[in-house]
Amino acid sequence: MFMGDITSLNKKQKFRNAIKLHPEWNLTYAKDHTYWEGALNDGIDRGNQPYYCPVGWKRYALYVTDHFPEKFKGWCKCYHGTKFSYGLSILLCGLKPAEIAAHGKGIYVSPSINYVCHPRYSEIKHIETPEQKKVFKSGEYIQFVLECRVHPTNIKRIVKETLGASGTIIDSNINNDIIEWLIDDQNKDVVDFNDPDASIVCTGLMIRVTDNHPGLLPESDWWFKSHLCNTKRCCCLDIDFDELKQQKNKAHTCNIVYE
Ligand SMILES: [Zn+2]
Ligand SMILES: [Zn+2]
Questions:
Q1: FRET label pair with 93: which of 3, 14, 41, 126, CA 20 to 30 Å apart?
Q2: Residue 211, exposed/middle/buried by CB under 10 A (0-12, 13-18, 19+)?
Q3: Where residue 5 falls among pLDDT bands split at 50, 70, 90?
Q4: Which helix (H) or strand (E) holds 78?
Q5: What are the pLDDT digits (tens) for 95-117?
Q6: Which one of the ligands is nearest to 228 CA?
Q7: Any idea where the domains of the chain sit in the sequence?
């Protein structure tokens, strides 16, 4: 699977050894695939937080542990946006708690996949090389975020969005004021996903492939009413910001590719 800026074979090797996929649990979240409206009510205990359908995303399940349903009964679903090159190290080594952060030290996650896929958090990549094209076929751009589980007692604070999006709706299911969760980092420098006592575990890779820039999706409308900039270190658009704005003004469209 293409994972972004991974050039060294050594790293690839390490990746294959450390991450186990669990393809029986792969899912596509979309109408005509796996889909529900409102909070999921399937009898499975996912803690005290609602779980909404992450429409438009494909889940590549990761193997966490045997007897996952029993061990993670009562743990809430959440998402963590990341840049391609960091994503791999997060999966291999764990999440590094934020040092300087708006709401205090810890790990930031969100119940909203539409929040964490903002390019400030989750890098957008243009699919360019022939190898990438082979994998993603009619796709032009790709994004990924991490799907995680956290036990409610490890959610230290539930806080508002920090992207200057107060004037817009980020997620029709989740209010802007409760869209960030600050997770207890247990005073560790890195929270290791392979540690059975970790406060957060990574259960999947959520991938969205689109036939045009994802900023043109209707669900990305709020990006343009929040912080968004042309600085690659900050917002990873992989397109010139002015070019994107022009395309948006000309009503260029974008479709999600599900294959
Ligand atoms: Zn590009
Ligand atoms: Zn920015």
A1: 126
A2: middle
A3: very low
A4: strand 76-81
A5: 777 665 666 778 899 999 999 99
A6: 2
A7: 22-249
Ligand 2 center to residue 153 CA distance, Å? Answer: 32
78 CA from centroid of ligand 1 (Å): 29
Which bound ligand lies closest to the C-alpha atom of 231?
2
Distances (CA, A) of 80 to 33, 132, 226: 23, 24, 19
Element (H, E) at 158: strand 155-159
Q: What is the DSSP string of 200-241?
A: EEEEEEEEEEESS-GGGSGGGGGGGGS---S-TTT---SS-H
* Smallest-distance ligand from the CA of 232: 2
ipTM of the complex: 0.72
pLDDT in tens, 158-192: 999 999 999 999 999 999 999 999 998 887 777 77
Handedness of CA 224, 5, 161, 255 (dihedral sign): positive
Distance 151 CA to ligand 1 centre (A): 38
Q: Which residues of 214-237 are buried (b: 16+ CB within 10 A; e: fewer)?
A: bbbbebbebbeebebeeeeeebbb
